[in-house]
Amino acid sequence: MIFTAVLLFVFLLLGAPLFSVIAASAMLGFYHSEIDLSVMAIEFFGLSEMPILVAIPLFTFAGFILSESNSPQRLVRLSNALLGWFPGGLAIISLVSCALFTAFTGASGVTIIALGALLYPALSEAGYDERFNLGLITTSGSLGLLFAPSLPLILYGIVAGVSIDDLFLAGIFPGLLMVVMLGVYSVYKNRQTRVLRRVSSREIIAAIKESAWELPLPVLVLGGIYSGYFAVSEAAAVTALYVIFVEIIVLREISWRDLPRIIRESMVLVGAILMILGVSLASTNYMIDAGVPEKLFGIVNTYIDGQASFLLALLIFLLILGAILDIFSAIILVVPLILPVASQYNVHPVHLGIIFLATMELGYLTPPVGLNLFISSFRFERGIGEIFRATLPFFFLLLVAVLIITYWPQLSLFLLS
Amino acid sequence: MNERQHFWLVRAELWGRWLENVLLSFLVIGLIALASIQIVMRNILSMGYPWTDSVVRLMVLWLALAGGMAASRDQKHIAIDIVTRALPPNGKRIADVIAHLFTALVTGLLAWHSFRFVRDSYVFGDALMTNWPAWVFQLILPFGFAVICYRYFLRALREIVRVRL
Q: Considering A13, A128, A353, B13, which has the largest number of Cβ atoms within 10 A of its Cβ?
């Protein structure tokens, strides 16, 4: 048993796709329990029994369309018009626009490519410190993770069987906490930088006019979801339809001929996530049948006493996990196992989700697998080490934010009825 | 490999990519259309069509496998590359061969057992949405896994010839 586990781990390290390693472990488990292996197909077919799942391809598609259009430029111009007069304003602009953009594009690293390329030169030009800029942009690439309708929030809701509407509410204040903490630091750090321009009502009006087609989108989606008018899957359909309508038909920034390519690129990501989810339905069921969560709780319980120390252990575990695994795989693989354990320590499943995602957000910044580090290094042609050092102050600030989020459950839960 | 065989392999690759794109586009556009029609029916005409719900969910399953096929062609499956990134070129090739053969074996098994699942469903006459034969919708499982298996097997062969011993 241990031998096969080690062998599978070796295959994983040699670069075998995660889904195949999970499928292999599930098949071995079922084989040892003398269960017919067609159970794999039956479990995988379970993907077609999850009504909310449709939100994942639709939101991902909409996010890819948005990042291919000129909406990043418009978003930057608008936030610049509104906040540019503030000392350290451009840094705030970066934080706010990246957070908003990431919420809609699902933290796949696309924010750094789409927005970072605009913000980074602007920050340098305004006299911000080089190292600060690199750190800021790299960190902002995953900042909006806790805001609706981000993909990891939806995926956590599906895997944990928690109401996605509740998660969307719970993410608001923890997400704001992170943005505000980074914002205060940025303003303090750059209190000397000159103010770019005075507030100009003409520029504000022009920027609003230019973004007139995109501005209703957050209102439509977030308003629709929070008011309960749309189910999450419906909001996803509306977003996809609206984005096609605006970017392809009205503004014509993307031609119909580009559509198959964008569909393919977005669905490759969706396929990669859903393949892992499909085979994990089988492996999770096997592990639950074999009583793995109970055994896990037994082990954890002998070493850890009380909620506070459990949460600390959880944080350390998630930090390590985030450093080696991407957020989507981590949610699918780990949540079914720690959810029952956490409930034994009276951790609310929605609060657990916020802790999980907030900590995994730090995983984007930690080597060896921190996605943002690689994307920034690639995009701005700097070494990973340099980027990593530049993100350190931001990393520690976010770590403090994660600690607050973890030990102050009401910050996440008080909006829930 | 002679030139003629190579020609057909290249052809098959081009056609395969085109077919994937058509399938993916059809599924995504179809999903958006169906899901939007549902909203209109549910919220404005306040009626529900239970079959659209089932079709939408089945299309997501199809998307999973079609996307999975595309991801294996584009080498975009989620994998851990901390170790392989640090390997010298020849070591990387050997690691690739082993990992690809492993993946081909696993997806081959998945394809075979999915095929058995679909065959049983055909024999027993399982139905979805009251009277549609279920096996038609389930067929994507063995097909998708078989294509992924083929893809990784081919890639393993391609790497084997490049390994220097």
A: A353
B107 — contact with chain A (CB < 8 Å)? yes
Average pLDDT over residues A349-372: 90
CB of A49 less than 8 A from some CB of B? yes
Structure tokens at A407: 């030990």
- Per CB-CB distance under 8 Å, the chain A contacts of B81 are 15
Question: A161 and chain B: CB distance < 8 Å anywhere?
Answer: no
Question: What is each CA distance from B8 to A281, B149, B150, in whole angstroms?
Answer: 38, 19, 15
pLDDT per position as a tens digit, A68-126: 888 888 888 888 888 777 777 888 888 988 998 888 887 667 788 888 878 888 888 87
Burial A123-145 (b: 16+ CB within 10 A, else e): beebebeeebbbbbbbbbbbbbb
Q: Mutation test of the interface with chain B: which of A39, A56, A261, A270, choosing the one with the most B Cβ atoms within 10 A?
A: A270
Look up residue A400 and give its two tokens: 């403090």
User: Rounded to whole angstroms, what are the CA distances from A332 to A5, A18, A326, A351, A370?
Assistant: 19, 11, 10, 17, 18
Task: Give dist(CA A275, CA A372) in Å, integer.
Answer: 23
Indicate if the pLDDT at residue A143 is higher than 80: yes
Give the whole-angstrom CA distance, residue A105 versus residue A88.
26
What is chain A's Cα-based Rg? 22
* Contact criterion met (CB < 8 Å) for B76 and A40: no
pLDDT, one tens digit per residue, over B29-83 is 999 999 888 888 877 777 766 778 889 999 999 999 999 999 999 988 988 877 8
HSE-up (13 A, CA, CB side) for residue A339 = 20
**Cβ contact (<8 Å) for A274 and B99?**
no
As a whole number of angstroms, the distance between CA A111 and CA A141 comes to: 5
CB pairs under 8 A between A and B: 207
The b-or-e profile of A298-337 (16+ CB within 10 A means b, else e) is eebeeebeebeebbeebbeebbebbbebbbbbbbbbbbbb
| A227 contact partners, CB below 8 Å, separation of at least 6 | none
